[in-house]
């Protein structure tokens, strides 16, 4: 369903850009992508303009990223200049004119995106502000998942991208709506979305922690420690391997190929109970 929404949005945005510039524009949508928020932000260049928008009635905000070259080209086109890409732009603050054009473009993006959701779910995306500092434009934690799509705008010789980034947690309340068949079959599921999400989640990196031993000390003992002191450790035959403090495996530990290693004996569920070998 999100693929259909993005296709609709590309079509609506094409009309919206024409209304803004009075020039024909082609807009194409890339395949949607699920990735870490930090990965998405690391792909952005210093020329990009980061704008925040509400996702009413959903919680959280959307991030709309406009390429700097695209914005500059739109400003020149709007005021009668050549419709082409400039590659000699320097990182700088936006002029008052550029801020106004960017605000109009973001209002167009938000308005047309709301139209793309018509008939699927009530949606009220509204432009909030543009953030010059990337840290203030975060819409999720660094390791949290976001759903991103790149829309490529072509106006004459000018080509640039607008990137739409939505927090995955904001879309979770709409799982049933997004998974439903666009033809209205309540039992049908958008297999492409599930397949894409599964692939992206499976490629996400996690940190597996296996704590070998622990020791209980008083604050007095801790403060009296000196180099060369020994701390007695309580070891157990098996240990638990965890991700984000959630136990996933019960293991034995030892050496393998000359390196410390753990051998998985049991797989655990999220409550730490055995559910198979």
Summarize the biggest pleated sheet.
7 strands, antiparallel
Q: Radius of gyration from the CA trace?
A: 25 Å
Overall structural class, as computed from helix and strand content, comes to: alpha+beta
Kindly identify the CATH topology of the largest domain: Chemotaxis protein chec
Mean pLDDT: 83
Distance between the termini: 38 Å
CATH evolutionary superfamily of the largest domain = CheC-like
> What's the number of helices?
8
The CATH class of the largest domain turns out to be Alpha Beta
Query: What is the total number of structural domains?
Result: 2
Q: Tell me the fraction of residues in β-strands, as a range.
A: 25-35%
Low-confidence parts, pLDDT < 50 over ≥5 residues? 183-189
Query: What CATH architecture label of the largest domain applies?
Result: 3-Layer(aba) Sandwich
Shape: elongated
Q: What sequence of helices (H) and strands (E) makes up the elements?
A: HEEHEEHHEEEHHHEEHEEEE
What's the total number of strands? 13
What topology emerges from the helices and strands here?
Layout: H1 2-21, E1 26-29, E2 33-36, H2 37-42, E3 49-54, E4 61-66, H3 68-78, H4 96-116, E5 127-131, E6 145-155, E7 158-167, H5 168-171, H6 175-179, H7 191-202, E8 208-210, E9 213-214, H8 219-223, E10 234-235, E11 239-243, E12 246-256, E13 259-267
Helix pairs in contact: 1-4, 3-4
Kindly list the characteristics that best describe this protein:
2 domains, Surface presentation of antigens (SPOA), elongated, four-stranded antiparallel β-sheet, Chemotaxis protein chec, alpha+beta, seven-stranded antiparallel β-sheet, 13 strands, 277 residues, 30% helix
């Amino acid at each position: 369903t999100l693929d259909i929404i993005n296709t609709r949005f590309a079509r609506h945005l094409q009309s919206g850009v024409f209304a803004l510039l009075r020039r024909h524009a082609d807009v194409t949508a890339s395949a949607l992508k699920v990735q870490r928020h930090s990965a998405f932000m690391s792909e952005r260049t210093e020329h990009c303009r980061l704008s925040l928008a509400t996702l009413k009635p959903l919680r959280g905000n959307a991030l709309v990223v406009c390429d700097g070259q695209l914005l500059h080209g739109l400003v020149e086109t709007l005021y009668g200049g050549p419709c082409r890409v400039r590659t000699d732009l320097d990182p700088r603050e936006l002029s008052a004119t550029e801020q106004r054009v960017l605000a109009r473009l973001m209002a167009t993006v938000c308005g047309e995106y709301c139209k793309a959701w018509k008939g699927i779910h009530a949606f009220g995306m509204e432009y909030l502000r543009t953030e010059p500092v990337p840290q203030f434009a975060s819409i999720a934690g660094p390791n949290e998942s976001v759903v991103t799509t790149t829309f490529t705008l072509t106006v004459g010789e000018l080509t640039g991208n607008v990137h739409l980034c939505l927090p995955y947690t904001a879309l979770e309340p709409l799982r049933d709506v997004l998974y439903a068949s666009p033809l209205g079959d309540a039992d049908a599921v958008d297999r492409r979305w599930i397949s894409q999400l599964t692939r992206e989640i499976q490629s996400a990196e996690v940190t597996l922690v296996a704590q070998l031993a622990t020791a209980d000390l008083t604050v007095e003992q801790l403060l009296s420690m000196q180099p060369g002191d020994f701390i007695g450790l309580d070891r157990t035959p098996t240990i638990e391997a965890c991700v984000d403090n959630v136990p996933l495996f019960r293991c034995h530990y030892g050496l393998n190929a000359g390196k410390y290693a753990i051998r998985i004996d049991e797989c655990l569920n999220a409550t730490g109970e055995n559910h198979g070998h």
